[in-house]
Amino acid sequence: MHHASDPHHLPHRRGVLTAATGLAAGLGALALTGCSSGAPGPGGAKDDGPPRRGGRLRAAFAGGGAGESLDPHLGNLFADAARAKALFDKLADYGADLTARPRLASAWEPNAGLDRWKVTLRKATFHNGKPVTAEDVLFSYRRIADPGRAFRAKASLEPIDLKASRAVGRRTVEFVLKRPTAEFPNVLAAFGAYIVPDGAEEFDRGAVGSGPFRLVSFAPGRSTVLRRHADYWDGAPYLDELEFTVANEEAARVNALIGGQVEYAHELNPTTARAHQGKGQIEIVRLRNSAMQAFAMKTDRPPFDDKRVREAFFLIADREELIKGALSGAGEVGNDLFGKGYAYYATGLPQRTQDLDRARSLLRRAGADGLKVTLDTSAVAAGFTEAAGIFRDQAAKAGVTVTVRTGSKDSYWNDILDSGTLCCYRSGAMPIESHFSQRLLTDSTTNATAWRHKDFDALYRQAQSTRDERDRAAVYARMQRRLHAEGGFLVWGFADWIIGTARTVRGVERTAPANTLDWARFDKVWLA
Q1: Positive or negative CA dihedral for 296, 301, 304, 306?
Q2: Alpha helices in 292-383 (DSSP H)
Q3: Do 173 and 167 touch, CB atoms closer than 8 A?
């Protein structure tokens, strides 16, 4: 089962901001936007004139079987997220740099204390013709936050005092927050924070949203057919219809694409992409910087409770070899920090490279000569088992014995959260702020490296109460310098997210990572 945020369940957090990511992996994509006439198409050829209206596009995703639902607050698979985006809207979504961009919200404005935000809605209508109002927003968020339900965006909305928040006009909401939150728009863009009509509870037999497509039919685990919403606030889609089909195995998705049964196949592996790149039969689209690839070291237990050992492991890694061997070259090297290319990323830190002599010296000083560790991995994500084997061999050159232990695909993400000492890890796209809050604060519930430092928590709170963006960026840079020096994530690379399309598909945007606004943007694609 493939989720829309990484690790393959959606991460939750307690008492702090969260936003999607990722790939549920809780961490997980096609970026589709309109290209101008004559712009390069998916394979580099010129598009056939201006966008063309009409036709049905069929998209193959891994699905969730008979238990699938169109309830946008429940979904955690890529298929769920793509369908939800087609049928519904959020108040905001993430741009290519992972900053929040207005969607149903046309504007937002905080008070001086950053603990009250006024959000203005644009003029938009649901599929039944009723306008989207402030009451619909409050109903949707209160439904998500219901303590008796398990909706994905619940932790994301935690900073909001929904009892105190209120409509101050038909299209204006005043959100009252529990604490200063400088990046409150990230909450509006959170995975699963979709707006539904006031009182809506039934979705599978008659989902009504404000998105670019309206529901025609839904057969869980098989097919979903949608039709153009002509009055969509962001412009009617070019396609007449959009159909989501289910193909859980990658080979089935590729074969359906080659055989003409679908025009879009989601989530291809690097080997498949390399086999078909430039061959003319299908088009390969690579979304850069879509998935962080890392080894997570538990910083609260031996041997990684000694920062010298962690630094030694940073220096053992040959990142170029890991990219080539584990990702078949489909990615770029990391520098032990999340979010390369995203807003607030610390670009000024020196790129770390392999230095086995210094690694051995650090291990001797730490009393860790002849160190033996177990590295947990699984076939749960592409490249994991390959990365584990490559790193095992690299570590041997520094005198470290790594034993690779392969775990269950079904339970891996839960198994490695609290147990073990070293594991393979990945994450889909999310703001750097959300990465901090979900994984690196003392009370973060997906803190896979057990990084718990009160002074680090204080820096996060300082950043969230800092109104000036440059001053806030300086705080984030300070946090990243510390993580680069002694954190628990050995971030060796950033993988491309790969999808395949038929040669007739036009309007594909290649610059946005998976899980951003232009991922699964089927309202801006057309068929030549």
Answers
A1: positive
A2: 307-316, 319-326, 356-365
A3: yes
The length of the chain, given as a count of residues: 528
Give the structural domain span for 304: 289-496
* Rounded Cα distance, 23 and 249, in Å: 18
At residue 78 the predicted structure's pLDDT band, cuts being 50, 70 and 90, is confident
Helix (H, G, I), strand (E, B) or coil at 232: coil
Structure confidence at residue 36 (pLDDT)? 31
65 found inside a domain: no
Give tens-digit pLDDT for 244-293. Answer: 999 999 999 999 999 999 999 999 988 899 999 999 899 999 998 889 99
* Backbone φ, ψ for residue 480 (5° rounding): -70, -35
Is 270 contained in some domain?
A: no
The 8-class DSSP code of residue 373 comes to: E
Structure tokens at 124: 């938009």
Please give the mean pLDDT across all residues of the chain.
90
Q: What is the pTM of this model?
A: 0.85
Question: Considering only 98-102, 137-141, 390-394, 436-440, which range has the smallest mean pLDDT?
Answer: 436-440
Asked if residue 106 is part of any domain, the answer here is no
Dihedral sign, Cα of residue 326, residue 331, residue 333, residue 338: negative
- What is residue 323's three-state secondary structure? helix
In angstroms, the Cα distances linking 103 to 8, 198, 235, 312, 429 are 27, 19, 13, 45, 19
| Residue 48, pLDDT score | 60
CATH number, position 304: 3.10.105.10
Mean pLDDT of the region 501-508: 92
Mean pLDDT of the 219-238 span? 96
**Residue 63 to residue 477: CA distance in whole angstroms:** 39
CB 336 within 8 A of CB 483: yes
Grouping H, G, I as helix, E, B as strand and the rest as coil, residue 263 is: coil
488-to-17, 383, 392, 475 alpha-carbon distances in Å: 21, 20, 18, 19
Split into its structural domains, the chain has a count of: 1
Q: At CA 86, angle to CA 83 and CA 91, rounded to 5?
A: 110
Q: Going by C-beta distance under 8 Å and a sequence separation of 6 or more, which residues neighbour residue 455?
A: none
pLDDT value of residue 46: 45
Q: Would residue 242 count as lying in a domain?
A: no
